[in-house]
């Protein structure tokens, strides 16, 4: 197989024989994105604009905090992110502050009349705008966006290898399948990248491989449950001891599970 820089990590991941080689790739890309965020990205104005605006999801805040003992780089990113969010939230509040004060001074009768006449309460409008801002912030994450973009390119490269390299195609067909998340991404990207006949050919390789893998994992979980029957107390556990975490990762992708 002709190796290119972008094919090496993909081939290495498929060679590991894991339940999902794309999870192996994603873990590496995520680690790269985390280290980039508190490393080179700190000195790039365009990147800091993005981190100030988007922040991070709960999961990536946790991973960033646990990544290094030196918390200064992360503190600097959080500092400017919080400053921008405080300014945005204060702007919404200041826009409505005078009217909120007036509304707070209304009598109960005046407030009831406003309600009956359908007049919008200023406090309610402010709450709505603040909640909308906070909800939008919960949905943005600099690391997630970077990881998603890199994973999309990686899956494009997987399909390129499948199409161009017969050796990789065999490796693909003989894999243990994929987690359901990456199975879905392969299906979607193949529909975008391949012609009708090529897509059909890909599905004939992908779907039977995936179904066989799911069946194998399900059978391992089923066997695991039967090992708790007293009649099987001396039976061989076979490949079922780690069936529960393996099955969860087959469904969800990489998780921080205790083994």
Secondary-structure topology with pairs:
Elements: H1 8-15, H2 21-37, H3 45-54, H4 58-67, H5 72-104, H6 108-116, H7 122-138, H8 142-164, H9 166-173, H10 180-193, H11 196-226, H12 243-252
- Shape call: extended
Q: What is Rg? A: 26 Å
Q: Helical percent range?
A: over 70%
Low-pLDDT runs of 5+ residues are none
Run of helices and strands: HHHHHHHHHHHH
Give the helix tally: 12
Into how many domains do the coordinates divide? 2
Query: What structural class should be given to the helix and strand makeup?
Result: mainly alpha
Largest sheet: none
Mean pLDDT, to the nearest integer, reads 91
How many runs of DSSP E, i.e. beta strands?
A: 0
* Binned strand content: under 5%
Distance between the termini: 36 Å
């Amino acid at each position: 197989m002709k190796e290119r820089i972008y094919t090496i990590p993909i081939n290495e991941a498929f060679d590991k024989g894991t339940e999902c080689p794309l999870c192996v790739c994603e873990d590496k890309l995520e680690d790269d994105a985390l280290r980039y965020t508190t490393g080179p990205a700190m000195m790039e104005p365009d990147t800091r604009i993005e981190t100030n605006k988007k922040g991070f999801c709960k999961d990536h805040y946790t991973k960033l905090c646990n990544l290094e003992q030196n918390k200064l780089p992360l503190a600097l990113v959080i500092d400017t992110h919080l400053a921008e969010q405080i300014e945005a939230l204060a702007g919404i509040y200041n826009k409505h502050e005078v009217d909120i004060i007036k509304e707070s001074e209304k009598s109960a009768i005046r407030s009831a009349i406003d309600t009956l006449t359908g007049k919008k309460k200023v406090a309610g409008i402010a709450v709505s705008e603040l909640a909308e801002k906070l909800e939008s912030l919960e949905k943005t994450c600099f690391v997630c966006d970077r990881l998603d973009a890199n994973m999309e390119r990686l899956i494009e490269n997987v399909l390129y290898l499948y199409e161009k390299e017969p050796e990789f195609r065999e490796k693909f067909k003989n894999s243990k399948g994929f987690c359901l998340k990456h199975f879905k991404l392969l299906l979607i990207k193949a529909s975008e990248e391949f012609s009708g006949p090529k897509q059909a050919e890909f599905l004939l390789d992908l779907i039977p491989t995936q179904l066989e893998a799911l069946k194998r994992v399900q059978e391992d979980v089923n066997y695991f449950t039967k090992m708790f029957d007293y009649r099987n107390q001396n039976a061989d556990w076979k490949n079922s001891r780690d069936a529960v975490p393996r099955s969860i990762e087959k469904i969800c992708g990489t998780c921080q599970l205790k083994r």
